[in-house]
Specification:
With 94 residues, the chain is mostly beta strands. It has no helices and 7 strands. The strands form 2 sheets. It has a 4-stranded antiparallel beta sheet with strand order 1-2-7-4, with no helix packed on it. It has a 3-stranded antiparallel beta sheet with strand order 3-6-5, with no helix packed on it. The chain is globular and about 40 Å long.
């Protein structure tokens, strides 16, 4: 079975500068997933720390999530064949 990753983005209230993100992972998943967010962008010499703008990161049961570093989360899938990750990002920066 192959791995499937589907991202959905929504901007329900643009004036608030939040992007709602939903990622569905399905298929050949390991028992533990580690999700990372970059701390820099190619071509930029500044540390951006995008994860600082992440709010309300959660996963659907039976999976559980734990923040393990400032830019990384560990997802324990608990036998699930499909993991849904949801969060929102404050995006008021060019």
């Amino acid at each position: 079975m192959t791995l499937s990753i589907v991202h959905r983005l929504a901007i329900p209230a643009p004036q608030n500068h939040f992007v709602e993100v939903e990622t569905v992972l399905a298929g050949a998943l390991p028992a533990e997933l580690v999700l990372f967010m970059p701390v820099w962008a190619p071509g930029s010499y500044l540390v951006r720390e995008y994860a600082r703008n992440v709010e309300r990161l959660s996963v659907d049961a039976p999976a559980t999530v734990t923040k393990i570093r400032k830019n990384a989360w560990s997802v324990e899938k608990a036998g699930a064949e499909r993991v849904v990750v949801r969060y929102r990002v404050y995006a008021n920066e060019l």
